[in-house]
Amino acid sequence: MAAITVTPAVPAPSSAAAAVPALPLPLPVLHSTVLGWYDAHRRDLPWRTPEASPWAVMVSEFMLQQTPVKRVLPAYAAWLERWPTPADLAADAPGEAVRMWGRLGYPRRALRLHGAAVAITEKHGGVVPDDHATLLSLPGVGEYTAAAVASFAFRQRHVVLDTNVRRVFARAVTGVEYPAQATTAAERRTATALLPDDADTAATWAVGVMELGALVCTARAPECGGCPLFNHCAWQRAGRPPYEGPARRGQTYEGTDRQVRGKLLAVLRDAHGTVGQARLDAVWPDAVQRARALDGLVADGLVEPVEQGVYRLPQ
């Protein structure tokens, strides 16, 4: 059994080699196996085309957080048709970003993307920066998004750890069904050690592992028989032991404040102007929960009070 060859990473922890379990195949074979699978099975998505601008890639990354691809596709197309550059979005009111966000969910992402567009326009000449640290300094851009944009838009070598990637590594390398609920330092060391040396290959590797997790190594019903790593997966070789960690958080929606917030925002999005309290009161029977949800929207900057009992999207 060949041992893994640990490559330097960006950044490269000195303890990376000791942190990564050995795989039953050499690292170059692991890379070629996943990359070959990706080349044959990848989805044809608009943000992956050579024509996709760095701004288009950034928009897709904001939209894809906690949202399935099929829901993102129409919103992504409409967004870029209206705002093909950061400057176009920055010139519009933040409330218009919230309106266009529609029913994608987690609408604070719309405000964060608008804030990033303003910063790009005012500080970077309207051009999405290609430097990871500069990307990380943009409003609403965290470690994942900065790494994803640097990797996918600029073909740089970065560790890109989303839920799908973390699940593939947890199973194939660590031998557990699910990763920890929050990304750990050990996961980052593993991902760093597995990253190809060549920047362009590393960028393809990042999206290839992500695609493997999205299409094959899924959370609830993994199609292990169709996985290119079936014979080498540590979880498979261990007999697919069940998850033994803390209870995994569900995605409850019905009856939650999040549902009420969505209903209130829907009224404001459709109004194209101010909305009186009576129209908002009609969307939910529980007055206490409704008031709490509305207060939360105001606190998050998604809704502006105009006067007593009158509201609008932020201007």
Verbal overview:
- The chain has 315 residues and is an all-alpha fold.
- 53% of the residues lie in helices and 3% in strands.
- It is built from 16 helices and three strands.
- The chain has a three-stranded antiparallel sheet with strand order 1-3-2.
- A hairpin with a 2-residue loop joins β2 (304-307) and β3 (310-312).
- α3 (54-64) runs antiparallel to α9, α6 packs across α7 and α14 (257-271) crosses α16.
- The longest helix has 17 residues, at 199-215.
- The protein is globular and about 65 Å long.
- The chain starts with 15 loop residues before the first helix and ends with a strand.
- Residues 1-19 have low confidence and may be disordered.
